[in-house]
Inverse folding.
């Protein structure tokens, strides 16, 4: 997918999630930012360096963990970590020190002597992350780092990303899991059809879609009167299964007065739920599509 002049900035020390439907242009963008693809126009800087004129400096300043890591299955985890250090010009005792420290950090010290072909998917992802960090880059690119992982492995990666960020690493994250972006990112950019469709904090993006709303289930036959009552507090909304729904102008603080008014009218509330806008709503409203894989998250 061609990228049609997108424009965005990622601040030092933040986690920036880059989202988009398949074919939207996010992979092309990441390949250009990591110097794997030369742009045909425009300009981009990573860690202060131009991705075309100073590509070698960009490569020294970034770590890259790709979705499909090219890990030799016949080598051990320790051998691959040492190889990565050597490729970055780190030799001898320092290479061994960093390899050992990173194997500890990503929870692979006990498997360091095993061939990578025996590793699970989560172990391979953690090893690839460690290899990307061996030269202590200030900027880390993570391309769908938890795709296909079980929930426990996914959360282990999240915790490591948070720890890296707290230590000052800037993280550029592509993901197909909206929960992941919501959990980790300071800001989110959404690309669609090669252009930036939306960009802001997760909270601001969700707030831009609409306010939270309250959905109530009442005793049978009471919904019409309930709609009249809750309509005094906000806009009535469509709800499924005969429920009553109303927008909350002031968020959850509106719930108690609504329930009190229904109770005073003698209406029985069987259940209620405050429903907040989600990134799924943002993504659908912005791109017209749902994000593949998110139902697995």
């Amino acid at each position: 997918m061609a990228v049609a002049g997108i424009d965005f900035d990622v601040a030092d020390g933040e986690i920036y999630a880059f989202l988009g439907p398949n074919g939207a242009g996010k992979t092309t963008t990441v390949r250009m930012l990591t110097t794997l693809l030369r742009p045909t126009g425009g300009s981009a800087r990573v860690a202060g360096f131009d991705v075309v004129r100073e590509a070698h400096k960009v490569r020294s300043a970034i770590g890259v963990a790709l979705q499909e890591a090219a890990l030799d299955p016949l080598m051990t985890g320790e051998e691959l970590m040492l190889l990565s250090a050597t490729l970055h010009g780190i030799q001898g005792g320092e290479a061994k020190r960093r390899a050992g420290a990173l194997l500890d950090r990503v929870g692979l010290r006990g498997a360091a002597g095993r061939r990578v072909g025996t590793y699970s998917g989560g172990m391979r992802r953690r090893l690839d992350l460690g290899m990307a960090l061996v030269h202590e880059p200030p900027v880390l690119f993570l391309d769908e780092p938890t795709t296909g992982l079980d929930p426990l492995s996914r959360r282990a990666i999240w915790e490591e990303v948070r720890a890296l960020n707290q230590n000052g690493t800037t993280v550029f994250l592509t993901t197909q899991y909206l929960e992941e972006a919501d959990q980790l990112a300071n800001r989110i950019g959404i690309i669609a059809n090669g252009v930036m469709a939306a960009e802001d904090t997760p909270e601001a993006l969700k707030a831009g879609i609409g306010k939270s709303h309250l959905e109530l289930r009442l005793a049978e036959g009471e919904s019409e009167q309930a709609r009249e009552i809750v309509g005094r507090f906000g806009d009535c909304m469509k709800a499924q299964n005969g429920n009553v729904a109303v927008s909350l102008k002031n968020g959850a603080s509106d719930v108690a007065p609504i329930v009190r008014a229904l109770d005073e009218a003698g209406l029985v509330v069987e259940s209620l739920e405050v429903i907040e806008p989600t990134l799924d709503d943002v993504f659908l409203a912005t791109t017209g599509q749902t994000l593949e894989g998110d139902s697995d998250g």
